[in-house]
C-alpha cells in the first residue's frame, strides 16, 4: 500500500509541476479537483433545470422531446443537453482524480478518515444520477440500461417484486417512467447535496467554486466540445428489438457490459467489493496521528485566532469555564478533528517567543507533539550555530522540499509540522537574535497538506490577518518560498538569490 | 514561460481533457448483439405446484395438535422448482431451473433468462415443468422466423396455462 501511495504521489507531483508551469499554482486544475467537481455539478444543475422545461416525462413523448431539443432547438437546448452530458462525464474524471490524489497524499487516514469515508457513497450517488439520466432519453441505450438495471435489482433476494416485468413490451408505464424522472430530477440530487455537505462538514473555509480562470476555461472547453460534438441519442427504444451496437458512456455505464459477461451476481460482488475496500482504506492500515492540540486555559485569552484559522474546525470558542473576567470565551479542541498541524499555534496571540514565564515558554494553545517551547529551543540552537552576517534561518514544513540540502554554516533549518505553525513574531525573534534573514517554506502554493498553511502564512505576512507582525520588522529580510517535494533546486536557488540580493 | 505559449499549452490541456471526455462518453462502441443474431428473453412470474400433496389428518394426528390448529388437511408450503428448456431445430440451446423464493420456498418463481440465437427460420420449442412429476408439464413448439436484432419475449399466461411469444 505504501509503495502504491508513494508511486502515486510521485506521479502527481510530476504532473502538478508541469501544470504549475502552464496554469500557475493558483489555477492548477489538480489543486482544485474538489471545487472543479462542485463547479461541474453546478453546470449539470443549471443545464438540467433548463432541459426539464421542454422535456416530456412520458414514455411516448420523452424520446421525441429529446430529439426536438437536440435537432430543432440545437442552438440552445441541444447545447444544454451536450453540456449536461459532458459536465457529467467531467465530474467523474475530477472526482476520480480527487480520490486518487487524496490517497497518494495520504490525506485520508487518521482524523481525516471521515471525508474519505463519506466521499465513497457520494461517488455512488453521482453514478446513480448519471445512470438514471440515461433512462430518461428512452432510446435503445436507455432500454439497454433499464433492462440491465432491472436484471441487477431483480438479482437482489431482498426485493420481492420483479422490476424487469415493468420493461416488457407494452408494459412500460408513464407512472414508472415518472418515478425515474423524479429520482433523476429530485430524489438523487437531494441525496447528493446532502452527501457532499456531509463530505465537507468536518473542514472549515470550504470552497465550492474553483478560481474564476479555471471555471471560465473549463466552461469554454465544454461549450466548444458541445458545439463540435453535440450529444445525440440512439434510435428510439423498441422493446421488440434488442440493442445491437451501443455507444456507451463508459464513465457511467461500464457495469452493464460487465454483467452481460459475468452476470448480475458478480456485478454486485465486484461493485460491493470495490466499495467496501475503498471504504476501509483509512484503516488499511490505520495511521497514528501526533497528539492533538491542547488548550492551556490559564494562558488562553479567548482571542479566537485558533477557531478562526483551524482548517478542520477542531477549535471552537465556548463560554469561559474558569471564571476569568476579562474574557468571555475559551478555546476548546475536539481531538477527533485535530490533525496536529499547529496552525492554531501560529494564530494564537499568546504564542509569542518574546513572552517568558519562568523557564518554559507557555502559551494558550500548544502542541504536545511539538511544543512552542521546543520550537523556540530549536530556533535558539539553530541561531547559535549560524555563522556570518548573512546567515539565514529557514523555517520549513516537514512535508515540503527536503531541507537537508540547505543546511550549511550560514544556513540553519528548523522543521515544523506545517508552515502555518509560525507565529509572525517568531520571524521578528529570529531577526533580532542574530540572523541576517529568515525564510519560511512549505508545500507548493495551493497544495498545503493541511489545506490552508500557505494561505494563512501569506495573509499573516501581508498583515491582512491576525496575528500581525510588528512594524519594526524589516520585511526585506524575510523570504517566503513555496517548494514541495522535488523542488529542492528551486528552493536553493531562491535562498541563494535572497541572500545575495537582499542581505548583501 | 511566455504568456502566449502558456495560453497555447492551456488550450492543449483543455483539448486533451475534452478529448478524453468525448472519447469515453461514446467509445469504444459496445456490440451487445452481433448483426446476424436475435435475442430470446424469458420473463414471467409463475407459482409452481406444491412439492407434496395435501393429506387428510387422522383423528389421532388432530388430537395431538392444539385446538386452534386442528385443520383437517396438512398442506406442506414448499413449492416445486421450475425447470425450463429451450430448443432450436431439435438442439437444446438453453435450460435452467429456478427455485421458489421465500423462507419456506413457497413464493411464485420469477423466471428470467436471455440468450442469443442465429437469425433465420427455426423450429422453436419451449418446455416447462412446474411440478415434481417427470417430463415437462407445458410445451410449445412452432416455427419462427427470427429477424436480425429481433427480441422475442417468451412469457407464460396464468389464465390459459399457455406460453405466449411476442
What features would you highlight for this structure?
heterodimer; A: alpha/beta; Cytochrome Bc1 Complex, Chain C; 2 domains; four-stranded parallel β-sheet; 16 helices; 51% helix; B: 166 residues; alpha+beta; four-stranded mixed β-sheet; 2 helices; 11 strands
Structure notes:
In chain A, 51% of the residues lie in helices and 8% in strands. With 504 residues, chain A is of the alpha/beta class. Chain A has two domains: 32-235 and 247-280, Cytochrome Bc1 Complex, Chain C, CATH 1.20.810; 294-502, no CATH class. In chain A, strands 7-6-8-9 form a four-stranded parallel sheet, sandwiched between helices. Chain B folds into two domains: 1-30; 37-165, Sandwich (Immunoglobulin-like), CATH 2.60.40. Helix content of chain B is 18%, strand content 43%. In chain B, a hairpin with a 2-residue loop joins strand 5 and strand 6 (91-98). The radius of gyration of chain B is 28 Å and the shape is elongated. The model of chain B has no long low-confidence stretch (mean pLDDT 91). At the A-B interface, helix 1, helix 4, helix 6, helix 8 and strand 1 of A face helix 1, strand 1, strand 2 and strand 10 of B.
Helical fraction of chain B: 10-25%
Uncertain segments of chain A are none
Largest sheet of chain A: 4 strands, parallel
- Please identify the oligomeric state: heterodimer
Radius of gyration of chain A: 28 Å
Query: Which shape of chain A, going by the Cα principal axes?
Result: elongated
In the CATH classification, which architecture of the largest domain in chain B applies? Sandwich
Helix content of chain A: 40-55%
Our measurement of the CA-to-CA distance between the termini of chain A, rounded to an integer number of angstroms, reads 48 Å
The number of domains of chain B is 2
CATH domain class of the largest domain in chain B: Mainly Beta
**What is the string of helix and strand elements of chain B?**
HEEEHEEEEEEEE
Please give the largest β-sheet of chain B. 4 strands, mixed
**Strand segment tally of chain A:** 9
Q: How many individual helices of chain A?
A: 16
